[in-house]
Design brief:
Elements lengths: L17 H12 L4 H20 L3 H14 L1 H16 L7 E13 L7 E2 L2 H14 L6 E9 L8 H17 L18 E13 L20 H19 L4 E4 L3 E2 H28 L6 E10 L2 E11 L7 E6 L24 H13 L4 E10 L11 E2 L5 E2 L17
Parallel strand pairs: 7-10
Antiparallel strand pairs: 1-4, 1-5, 1-6, 2-3, 3-4, 7-8, 8-9, 11-12
Helix pairs in contact: 1-2, 1-3, 1-4, 2-4, 3-4, 4-6, 5-7
This protein binds zinc ion.
């Protein structure tokens, strides 16, 4: 599984702490049998646990970055091992722990709420997740907070600390209250993701989720889709109460990293749909008259994201834009399906590109221009907002015309 590489100097010499970690990941990636894999995996997990308890983010990042450029399979093994170790800290022999996230996609022309959740509502969400998503063996402790992406733990060690704190609370059957006063402010977007975060403890080796254990009368297991339908129905009503004025789409609760990645992927299409609906109402222009310009944005020779600039027929000003970041295994350039990968050619990612085009058509936009040139990742120098391409391939700031009906409480960045 491909993840986004990091931005540190990639070919710097490995520190004395990073070297043994990189070697273990390479040995694991080269293992020739399950027996050997298990052996190296155990050693790797044992090496990671104390690093995550210390302040070793720099070492972890340096090792990942080095492997990304030198041994991709080992990089993948290490990234997975770190995420698993973060989410499931070892807190004794009897209980297994998982740091859990329940993502919700939201869009609103007003502010999308985040922050503190009342006691009674925390209890309601806990009961609903327990009933609809988790196995009867699992005990869930949720935090009293609706997290925005800016408020999620920003490093592996911070996430590991949260997992230990919540995991211990789940074992001890006590509540966890987060001090919501000092959290980073949430940037305001037209559409965004919010997360309920908690931890579950299950007796070692027992199933954690409904889809692992709950069967229909004919003996087949409940699918993840069925679990999601039930969660959307019940959790959706409860979330709507604390997120008034928002259109919501609940995603499947799961381990933190998996849930976040899936939510980030879904959020992109969600945001294109939200934008089309928003432009239609704010500008009073039918979607047939909206023009979408799609450009690939490149950093260090690899595609980082696509940006979609929206303009109105007959005018090349950008009225709104959407960033479509590449996530996980999508990151970078796709090898040419017909020819061998040609490193001299322009970076491209045809699968994602056609996915964006299909989605724009689906929401009723007919005038779509996919730009040939590759763009640098440019932002507005004043407000940091991304610049979007117009049909002529110029990078512009998104600005709604002055007579549009934009609610005061929102800005477009
Ligand atoms: Zn600006």
């Amino acid at each position: 599984m491909r993840r986004k590489p990091l931005n540190t100097a990639s070919r710097s010499k490995l520190s004395k702490y990073a070297k043994p970690l990189a070697s273990l990941a390479i040995l694991l990636a080269d293992a020739g049998s399950r027996l050997e894999r298990r052996f190296w995996k155990k050693k790797l997990f044992a090496a990671l646990a104390p690093m995550l308890e210390g302040r070793s983010d720099t070492t972890l990042m340096q090792t990942l970055d080095h492997l990304y450029n030198t041994n991709y399979r080992a990089y993948d093994e290490l990234a997975f091992a770190i995420e698993n170790t973060v989410e499931s800290p070892e807190l004794g022999q009897e209980e297994d722990i998982l740091l859990l996230a329940a993502p919700v996609l939201a869009w609103s022309t007003y502010n999308i709420p985040s922050g503190k959740i009342e006691e009674a509502t925390v209890a309601e969400f806990t009961a609903l997740l327990q009933k609809n998503v988790l196995s009867d063996h699992a005990h869930l402790v949720l935090t009293n907070m609706l997290f925005s992406p800016d408020q999620l733990p920003e490093s592996y060690t911070a996430a590991a600390e949260l997992a230990r704190q919540l995991g211990q609370a789940a074992i001890d059957r006590v509540k966890v209250r987060i001090d919501t006063e000092n959290l980073p402010a949430t940037q305001s977007f037209l559409s965004d993701v919010r997360y309920l975060i908690g931890a579950i403890s299950v007796p070692a080796g027992q199933p954690a989720f409904k889809w692992q254990v709950e069967a229909h009368s004919n003996g087949t297991l409940l699918s993840k889709e069925e679990v999601l339908v039930n969660w959307r129905l019940t959790g959706g009503q409860a979330l709507q109460k604390i997120m008034p004025g928002c259109l919501l789409e609940l995603m499947l609760p799961n381990g933190l990293y998996n849930a976040c990645r899936e939510a980030e992927k879904e959020a992109r299409a969600y945001s294109v749909r939200a934008s089309a609906a928003f432009l239609e109402s704010a500008l009073d222009v039918p979607t047939q008259k909206i023009h979408a310009s799609v450009g690939a944005f490149v950093d260090r020779g690899e595609i980082e994201e696509y940006r979609i600039g929206f303009s109105v027929e007959g005018n090349s000003d950008i009225v709104h834009g959407v960033v479509w970041p590449l996530i996980g295994e999508e990151y970078g350039n796709e090898p040419d399906p017909v020819y061998e990968k040609d490193i001299e050619s322009e970076p491209d990612n045809p699968v994602i590109r056609s996915k964006i085009e299909a989605l724009l058509k689906e929401v009723g936009i007919r005038q779509i221009k996919v730009l040939e040139e590759r763009f640098p990742l440019e932002y507005c120098e004043d407000c940091g907002s991304p610049l979007y391409p117009n049909p002529e391939g110029e990078l512009l700031h998104a600005e709604l015309p002055e007579d549009s009906e934009l609610p005061n409480s929102m800005h477009l960045h």
